[in-house]
Amino acid sequence: MPNKLLEQARLVCQKNGVRFTPVREQVFSLLADATGSVGAYELLTQLQQTDAKAKPPTIYRALEFLIDQGFVHKVESQNAYVLCSHFSEHHKAQLLICDSCGLVEEIENQTIYTALSNAAHKTGFTILKPTIEAHGLCAKCAEENP
């Protein structure tokens, strides 16, 4: 994982006046090193390699913090987590999820969010979690499986 991402996360925490504890940093680093999304228990298993006493609440508290800071997105359909590709500010993301290899690519398209928001507003609906997930095949898998 590039140290640049970790340093950027530290600066965001400092700016927000929140503690980036060693456990939070470790979970951040595990997600930064991951390819695709990672489940909480998989993260816990990896964390226990350096912190044998880590338990499920440890990982869930760290993930909640990382989500609150905008560092991580929860991939609801996979019950997993992925590092935000540009976490310097909270944003409305769309996640493209490859059902073949598990790659999760984040895009941010304001037109998509605006259309969804306008349609919801017309029905009196308020969107609280604006992340959209789309499942399909990444370019590599689509090429391999025409």
TrEMBL record:
Coiled-coil intervals: none
Binding-site list for Zn(2+): C98, C101, C138, C141
Recorded GO CC terms: cytosol
Pfam families assigned: FUR
Alphabetical keyword list: Cytoplasm, DNA-binding, Iron, Metal-binding, Repressor, Transcription, Transcription regulation, Zinc
Superkingdom of the organism of origin: Bacteria
CDD domains, per the entry: Fur_like
Record's keyword annotation contains Metal-binding: yes
InterPro entries: FUR (IPR002481), Fur_C (IPR043135), WH-like_DNA-bd_sf (IPR036388), WH_DNA-bd_sf (IPR036390)
Cellular compartment(s): Cytoplasm
Residues binding Fe cation: H90
Quaternary context: Homodimer.
Name of the featured protein: Ferric uptake regulation protein
Annotated organism of origin: Catenovulum agarivorans DS-2
Lineage: Bacteria, Pseudomonadati, Pseudomonadota, Gammaproteobacteria, Alteromonadales
